[in-house]
Write a structure and sequence with these properties.
Two copies of one chain form a homodimer.
Chain A lengths: L8 H12 L16 H16 L3 E4 L5 E5 L9 E6 L12 H16 L8 E6 L12 H6 L5 H5 L9 H11 L15 E7 L4 H5 L3 E7 L1 E10 L3 E2 L11 H15 L8 E10 L5 E2 L2 E10 L2 H18 L5 E9 L2 E2 L2 H13 L4 E6 L5 H4 L5 E6 L15 H19 L2
Parallel strand pairs in A: 3-4, 3-5, 5-15, 6-14
Antiparallel strand pairs in A: 1-2, 2-4, 6-13, 6-15, 7-11, 7-12, 8-10, 9-11
Chain lengths: 413, 413
């Protein structure tokens, strides 16, 4: 039996259903934010499955969780696959989790088919990919790849002031795993991540597999506007320093300047905090986040200049600042891995298309460490970061069949 | 000794300082929201002072707190003065509290001067004037005057889902007072409320006393916009239903349409909730409040039409609704009370001007029940609903001297 044929669609689907209960929301999505009790529960469930199959398990000081199926050559660097188990506050059940469960299914399929590989094959769940509770996102994989510094990340605080270090200690206490000594990061032969597309292209073009060639660049900003709290009934307009009126001027100008003709630039104001938030007090402070992405770094650079100009000129009489908090350049995946994904997809007779990823993924950090690639499967209407996010059992299994064939080939090089 | 001469500036100022400790903030303001533990502490402090002077105390089922100095005629309806002790979340130490402490100082001054009045004179602290925790504001006085229904108000919930009924029970347990039987409301001869201006006019015109002739009308609204949560990196602009982008269009149009030439209209967006509030998720829902005020009801009516038109036409592709939650018509105070305030101010040799109130006050509800009026004193730069709100001991005492003379005259009619 081939490894692809050993992939079991029903088992993979059931595992998604079991995981969706952890942080499950009434609308069918999940709220399983990084290093929450729900995240810990997901770690425990994955480890229980791994133990039942006799795979080895370990974690590192960033809380990245590894499940390994041994190879023939004990000294060979592993082939790795995975994604993340944390979600947005109102997230879907497939974003990230599919990549972890597809990797685990690949390990099980190799086991069930009795296939031995030269290199170990490893499934990984990276800590805090979403970046909604602790910023920046893709933190576990970035520390693993040496892109972010461990010590700095451990000091990052969520909006309640809890440090990542403390939240991580809680999580590892609730979901204990053998700890790998030393800093995160070790030699990896190659990395392939499966993920739902999170966009509408595969569905629109009626393709099952997206052969991912690149990830667009992304930058994140925080804009802060100071006003002056004042009584809503007595303070004349001319005497106001209304931070939300200023924020409205900035946001309106920003939406206008980011309206590109070919609709490739992604501009999002996602979090907005208006203080003190009383209906009859003129807002004294506003803070909002900007998420901006494009495949071309020069375009991002040009638009950043425009945003800075708007903040400098349109907030008057309120002082305003813009700070860039992350800047991730576009990633181009290894052509050998990309070609292998395409070849295995064709060999399995699945429809496919080459495409860049609109979203950032852990794979962009691993791509700095080793040859890397990604496999996309469709999601309904392209909707993600939403409780109604959906995908079909057949598409999820198809992506996993491609994945296991690719991993097997890489592990036997 | 006249009652005005018995007013003690130092005592009044010290009482403000003592009250400012209850819910005091690092910036020198107060966070003493309605029916909070801090509100209960303020009630206990006021009652301890009242007991020390031998005044009688009682509360009603809305938690309004009354302190009475007996009159000669036991059957005569009382003359009443007061305001509120609750604050904005980041409020000042004078808004409301001054009116309560000025009324209490008036009772003490009458006592110290050995003046007996025909009618009882009463100080009152009304429950929940601010309306920031429980909407609408001026709730205690409105129920007292029969404008709002007790049963409906008891069911009002704060943003955490706690009912006013439960919060009130907690408060009355923590600050127990003899309960007056029956529904709130009883015969009142007349009502005079002292308050800081909360606007810049007295300071700008260098006057000590504002003789308040009216209160402008105010309306409050909630605007709700539905979008669709989506991934910030993958969802093309054309496929988005971005609730905050729609909110920005509405807010920008609203700010533009409420820019009147004579700067009399007050338009404020004070509370803004953007969900789910994740930097990399397109907002799926926005809720914001509008507070709009003007002395002329017809102007408010006209602008409400414009706001409704904006919500109906500018939010596409997001469905949006606007709901009016309060509508308080302008109040005109009793000319006899207004004339008496002006006459007593002149007799004391204090500078003064007639003016309408920009803010709503408990007096607007009492004005439906009995002859009523208000006395304003300046506050620094007109700033209120702000922790830096400030007023001088001399101005506060001046206003109280006018108040006690007016109350004495009314109580001896």
């Amino acid at each position: 039996m081939s490894s692809a044929n050993a992939v079991r669609e029903d088992r993979l689907w059931q595992r998604h259903a079991d995981m969706a209960k952890l942080g499950g929301t009434p609308k069918g999505g999940v709220n399983r934010q990084a290093l929450s009790p729900e995240d810990a529960a997901a770690r425990n469930l994955l480890m229980s499955w791994a133990k039942a199959r006799g795979f080895s398990i370990f974690t590192d000081v960033m809380g990245n969780l590894f499940v390994q199926r041994a190879g023939i050559d004990a000294n060979a660097a592993p082939v790795m696959s995975g994604s993340h188990m944390d979600s947005q506050p109102t997230g879907g059940r497939f974003d990230g989790m599919y990549g972890v469960l597809a990797a685990f299914e690949a390990l099980e399929a190799l086991e069930d088919a009795g296939i031995r590989t030269k290199r170990p094959v490893m499934a990984v769940a990276w800590t805090n990919e979403e970046g909604s509770r602790f910023q920046p996102g893709a933190m576990g994989s970035a520390v693993f790849a040496g892109t972010y510094k461990l010590d700095e990340m451990l000091q990052v605080k969520d909006w309640k002031g809890i440090t990542l270090k403390d939240a991580l200690a809680e999580t590892l206490k609730a979901a204990p795993a053998p700890m790998r000594d030393g800093k995160p990061g070790f030699a990896v032969d190659s990395y392939v991540e499966a993920h739902i597309e999170q966009g509408p292209r595969l569905e629109n073009e009626n393709k099952t597999i997206g052969v991912v060639t690149a990830i667009q660049g992304s930058r994140r900003y925080i804009v802060e506007i100071d006003g002056e709290e004042a009584h809503a009934g007595t303070t004349p307009r001319s005497a106001r320093k209304d931070a939300f009126a200023a924020a409205t001027r900035l946001a309106a100008a920003m939406y206008a300047t980011t309206t590109d003709a070919d609709d490739t630039l992604r501009f999002t104001i996602g979090r907005v905090e208006v203080s003190p938030g009383s209906p009859n007090t003129v807002p004294g402070k506003v803070l909002f986040t900007i998420d901006m992405r494009h495949p071309d770094n020069a375009v991002l650079e040009e638009h950043e200049k425009a945003l800075r100009e708007i903040v400098a000129t349109r907030a008057k009489p309120c002082p305003a600042r813009i700070e860039r908090v992350t800047n991730v350049a576009p990633t181009y995946f290894d052509p050998k891995v990309v070609d292998l994904v395409r070849a295995k997809t064709e060999a399995l007779g699945l429809s496919h298309m080459d495409m860049p990823s609109g979203a950032g993924h852990d794979a962009m950090h691993l791509a700095k460490l080793c040859p890397a690639g990604m496999i996309f499967v469709p999601c309904e209407r392209g909707i993600s970061h939403n409780e109604i996010e959906n995908a079909t059992p057949a598409d999820l299994a198809a992506g996993t069949r491609v994945l296991v064939e690719v991993l097997e080939a890489l592990a036997n090089r």
